[in-house]
Design brief:
The chain is α/β, with parallel strands linked by helices and about 200 residues long. It is about 25% helix and about 25% strand. The two termini are about 25 Å apart. Bound molecules: inosinic acid and magnesium ion. The site of magnesium ion has 4 residues, from loops. Magnesium ion (MG) binds near residues 39, 42, 43 and 98.
Length: about 200
């Protein structure tokens, strides 16, 4: 198999952790119906699995943001391309993210959404790459701590590829991937281990 990347979090491990996070949410929001918000597109795979592990009368909604290029990289200020469909005033809101890196985008989103006066607002992220964090952020639910390496799979992309990988891979050779963005496509052919035994 390619040496451009190695498995960091196998799909089977992600599945177990997502189940635990769903139980945590169900316990913490018992008797309430939170709105789970995903920021397109990286968080959708995690959201799709998480909601099926969370036995609550929850609702989902989506936002899409676009950066202003380098200005956004230092400020985190983004343009809302697609806003929420519902008013979150008085609601319990959980922002579901794939990875919090610098945290600049999330920090900006949190301040924007707080202006709408939700009852509560918390963050649930699959990966927390705290080494690169800029603004201090309180992340209520974290799947895994993520080393300071570029990752793909389970929603996370490199130039829109690899979101459909069941595992999360750490890229060992960014140069090779930049030269050939398809360098990891052979990973897509693998029989996912979690499917073993299914279907007889
Ligand atoms: P930040 O926290 O504002 O720096 O931006 C985080 C966003 O950048 C995430 O929601 C991802 O969409 C993207 N991102 C950060 N690190 C990675 C990575 O290692 N792989 C793929 N996307 C990433
Ligand atoms: Mg994202």
């Amino acid at each position: 198999m390619s040496e451009v990347a190695t498995v960091l979090f196998p799909g089977s491990l992600i599945g177990r952790r997502v189940r635990e996070l769903g139980r945590d949410l169900a316990r913490d929001y018992e008797g309430r119906s939170p709105v789970l918000i995903s920021v397109l597109k990286g968080g959708v795979v995690f959201l799709a699995d998480l909601i099926r592990e969370t036995p609550l009368p929850l609702r989902v909604d989506f936002m899409s943001v676009s950066t202003y290029g380098e200005a956004s990289e230092v400020s985190g200020v983004v343009r809302i391309v697609k806003d929420l469909d519902q008013d979150i005033g008085g609601e319990d809101v959980v922002i579901v993210e794939d990875i919090i890196d610098t945290g600049l985008t999330l920090s900006y989103l949190l301040s924007t959404l707080r202006e709408r006066q939700p009852r509560s607002i918390e963050v649930c992220t699959l990966l927390d790459r705290s080494a690169r964090r800029i603004p201090p952020l309180e992340l209520r639910y974290v799947g895994f701590d993520c080393p300071d390496r570029f990752v793909v799979g389970y929603g996370l992309d490199f130039r829109e590829r690899y979101r459909n990988l069941p595992d999360i891979l750490a890229v060992d050779d960014m140069g090779a991937l930049a030269d050939d963005p398809d360098a990891l496509v052979s990973w897509l052919d693998q029989e996912p281990p979690r499917m073993a035994g299914v279907g007889g």
